[in-house]
Amino acid sequence: MGVDWHSSMASSSTTAARRGRFAPSPTGPLHFGSLIAAVGSYLDARANRGEWLVRIDDLDRTRIVPGAAAGILGTLETLGMAWDGAVLYQSKRDEAYRAALEKLKKRDLIYPCSCSRREIADSAVAGIDGPVYPGTCRKGLLSGRAAQAERILTLGAKIEFKDAVQGKITHNIERQIGDYVLKRADGLYAYQLAVVVDDEAHDITDIVRGADLLDSTPRQIYLQQLLGYTMPRYAHLPVAVNVVGEKLSKQTMAAPVDATTPVPILNAALTFLGQDHVDCAPQDTQSFWKQAVAGWRMDRVPRTRTSPAPALP
Ligand code: GLU
User: Fold this and answer.
1) How is the chain split into domains, by residue range?
2) 62: CA distance to ligand 1 center in Å?
3) Among 28, 288, 310, 312, which residue has the least CB neighbours within 10 Å?
């Protein structure tokens, strides 16, 4: 690599008004589920004459599979999906996350927490993403206990936003999630913080990703507001599910995308997203993308959170 991502982007940042990104976690090869997010974010950026960046979300070192990042990038290349600038790696961004957390601490919005998962599960009501943190450590750590994680205060935080696919979303974070973790017990910064800091640092204007992240978005907008960042536009695409309704993922044994004949699998992604099928030779990615970009219509993406994955070519 050796290229500083941000400075390498700076020269081009004056030209494009729109900037999207694809941010895979390198936990395995690219599968059809993540291909949907890649294709949707790529088409949305290119159809609007925008830039498209790739960020590798390798923050959680415990989940990384060696070689997965290089595999994903290689597959994108074979599919003819060229990104702008150098690839960003979250694992190199700890300093930026630390500075953002510090800013929130100065405003007394962060507190240490010593609760174990078990304790939280025992004393909490169910929320939209696991148990709602009951605020046990808000007034200080329980005596004799050491801090594990750091949480953000969500006192009355109510977030409303309009998603280009899923429509109006309203969340009461305190009631539906509770004070959430920004720095984990194992010392890693939480995804919710990292994603917000990175998208701001790289001037992302449009976030197009899977609807499995829709429930995270209010937490991210809340942080954007507290940190004084610009809120990007959001579009959450339907997530591909298997016959038993499970999201395609490494855990559900989703098959890696076979990019040796790129156009049929790209057409499967396009059809999944409600777009017209492109007619071109199976290897002709250039012609595929030209036509797919020209035909892209966000308003044709199905307005559902999940959709069955098609039989793959
Ligand atoms: N790395 C996350 C994932 O693969 C996506 C993050 C994002 O798009 O904000 O689920």
Assistant:
1) 5-92+240-308, 95-190
2) 16
3) 310
